[in-house]
Amino acid sequence: MYSKMTADEKFRIMTQEPVNRLICSLAVPTIISMLISAIYNMTDTFFISKISTSASGAVGISFSLMAIIQALGFTIGMGSGNYISRLLGQKKREYASNVAATVFFTALFLGAVLTFLGLIFLDPLVYALGATPTIAPYARSYIRYILIGAPYMMASFVLNNILRFQGSAFFAMLGIATGSILNIVLDPIFIFVFKMGTGGAALATIISQFISFCILYYNSRIGGNIRIKFKNFTPKWEIYREILKGGLPSFIRQILGSTSMICMNFSARPYGDAAIAAMAIVARIFQFAMSAVIGFGQGFQPVCGFNYGARRYDRVLNAFWFCVRTAAVFLTSVAVFGFMFSYQIISIFRKEDLEVINIGIRALRFQCLTFPLSSWIIMTNMLLQTIGKGFQASVVSASRQGLFFIPAVIILPRLFGLLGVQISQSVSDVFSFLLAVPMALGTLRELEALHNEEKRRSHATHLAST
């Protein structure tokens, strides 16, 4: 059924189906792929943690590099996806094909540059990411393989977003989920059977990501999706400007996520490898819960983009409020569960190390207190980004992991010691929420005004025709 859908049928569905049902249908495969990816990340952390506390700390160090790769991939992918969805809403399919080809080959090139520079400066890179002398050997072994896979990993993020914004979340899920499941299977084999340690975990990652890349590339050629062809590669400023406009919020969010992890590692380092390991574990746990909400929001984005381009502002508004309500209920439930069972959750990863458990429990509970606020922050960012409000979206995107978090994780540990490290994310969440509320409400008023204007125009046209 999916492979036979035409572009016109897809347009009709995106602009006429009830938004609640449409968002859920698009969000389910995206949530599945996001959760499977998050499960892989947690499984990766679980298996590596069985090696030693220092190896577990290396996950936090390597996570910063992965965030940089994701930052570049999501910047290009989200920026082009937003642009493509609006172009398709305006029925400019040929130009959308040029955009898709341009961003795909650009991602491959940038990934190759990162590989080249990263391998040359591997040792300085490991310590720049926050490694201690005891963590560095494990991090170096992991990062070396990740750099090798950077080009097609980056291109996979681009393909995933291009498919999603065309309303083909199912095809995106197939590629992402297959790679993540394969990764979970290969992890223990390379780590323990082949005795490759952290390097084995990274090798499993890049093999799985290559399989995922191949599936995503194949799926981009079916189901009424835009085909990626080198002849459509059109590297010109007009395209890159729109990509940066729509992708800058993702870049800021991702690169600040990497920077914040580096700052977290440096702030936790005075308290030993156990503190770095504990904060890395807590970060992976919340990434897992957050991935479901992000996946749900990514079901909202193509609906928002298509309908904004088609001037169906009423559908954009309905979709936004539906997503905020649903995300708030989910995150509140997760926060209550996490607070109540914090000991059991942290113990899954390092039950052998009581220091890691104690540090992790308190950090997890503090983050649970403010976790529900992320529903508004995330949906506001996605709304602003998708309708082309790049600057405002960038500010919201920068707030949680940068504008407020980085100062918090630098200043608070100096005032409160290890407690300052543990409460930094919660403090950042509160200030980010206070920032996002007026920005979202102002945009919603603008959309309401555009909707009313569109109704008046439609009514006047109807009167004139009769």
TrEMBL record:
GO terms for cellular component: plasma membrane. Keywords: Antibiotic resistance, Cell membrane, Membrane, Transmembrane, Transmembrane helix, Transport. Coiled coil: none annotated. GO terms for biological process: response to antibiotic. One of its GO terms (molecular function) is antiporter activity. It is a multi-pass membrane protein. It comes from the Bacteria. CDD domains: MATE_MepA_like. The keyword Zinc does not apply. The chain crosses the membrane at residues 21-43, 55-78, 99-122, 142-163, 170-194, 200-219, 274-296, 317-343, 404-424. It is found in: Cell membrane. Belongs to the multi antimicrobial extrusion (MATE) (TC 2.A.66.1) family. MepA subfamily. This is Multidrug export protein MepA. It comes from Thermosediminibacter oceani (strain ATCC BAA-1034 / DSM 16646 / JW/IW-1228P).
